Structure formats: structure tokens, C-alpha cells
Amino acid sequence: MFHQADLPDVVPLFPLPGALLLPRSRLPLHLFEPRYLAMLDDTLKIPGRLIGMIQPNEVPGRSGTGLHCIGCAGRVTQFSETEDGRYMITLSGISRFRIEKEVEGFTPYRRAKVSWGGFERDLGPQDADTQFNRGAFMDLLARYFDARELQTDWETLKDADDELLINSLSMLLGFEPEDKQALLEAPSLSTRRETLVTLIEYALRSGGETEIMQ
């Protein structure tokens, strides 16, 4: 269990388009670039073992860091090495953060001084969505999966609690990076669910090629 006072002022950053980590959720990652292998090696030496997932924000002609200002830090809770030196890791989402400034140094990966203020709820118990119409949501989700000819374990989805269901779908459905950022920045579970519904409905209307990331 983390408290805000325990969270570090500086975190290593892993910019990855479309990869969304949310508090109290888990994200599997495959590390193979030398700089991120070095990042993992350094992270495992620190008690908190936190890595900050962040969305790139590259806009032609715009100056700045090329990163969105809000990300989510996850603790390395599982890792295994392959025979060729790559790593499969799992990050467990701890808290969102806001980048204050990047930190210069000798590491091959990026780091930033961050603020955890405004995200106190991330460290608390599961969020609730009292207005969640689960039946209508599952009907919409079934239409989406049918339209994309996708398969899923419906019993697992039906048994999942509200936060796990909404957060898992937010992370797994293959929306655009900017849409993922909107899901990350949603201030509450109900707002995230409303955003998710809007994105699913838009995908159904547009007939786009949105898919599930395996």
C-alpha cells in the first residue's frame, strides 16, 4: 500500500503510444530496447519499483517535451527474462501523476520530476459508479464485439466488478492514443465510463477498424 508521502519526486518514463495504465489495474509489457532494459534494471534496485507510463504527444511545429503532461505510475510486480535477454513485466497501476519538468542526467531513458497532487483518490479503495446501467452497457459492448467479429469471455466480463470492467476495457480496446489519454484523465469512474461509451458508440457509427489488443 502506497501513501502520497511515499511516492518519489522523480520517476523514469516509458512513452508508449496507445498503452494505457490505470490505478488498480495491471498492464503487461514486453521490454527489449536497451534503454528500457537499463530502466528496468535501475527500477528493480529501488524499493518502490515504479515506472511512469506516459503517452507521446508529438505535434509538428510544437515545441516542448513531446509528452502528455499526465501519466500513470505502476509498480513492477512481475518480471521474467527470455532466453534472448528480453523481459516480460507486469505493472500494477498505483497513481496518476503530472509532469513538472524533465530531469537531465546520464540515464539512457527519460525521467521527470512529477507531482502527485490532485490524484489522491488513486491510492484509495475502488471507485464506484452509482449511475452505471450495466445491462445497457453490456448490450452496447455486445454490438461492438459483433460488429468487429471479436470473441471474448462474456462470463468473466459479467462477473467483473464495475471498476475492473470499465478500466480493463479502457486499457484493452484499441482506441487512438488521444482517446486513451482522455480515458486516463477522466476524474472519476463514472466519467471514464461515459467517455468509454462515447468512444464505443462513435466506433460503431463510423465503422472504423478499432480492434482489441491481445
From TrEMBL:
Keywords: Hydrolase, Protease
Cited Pfam families: LON_substr_bdg
Keyword Chloroplast appears in the UniProt entry: no
GO biological process: proteolysis
KW Electron transport (keyword) present: no
Cited Gene3D superfamilies: LON domain-like (2.30.130.40)
The protein's Enzyme Commission number: 3.4.21.53
PANTHER family, sorted: ATP-DEPENDENT PROTEASE LA (LON) DOMAIN PROTEIN
UniProt protein name: Lon protease 2
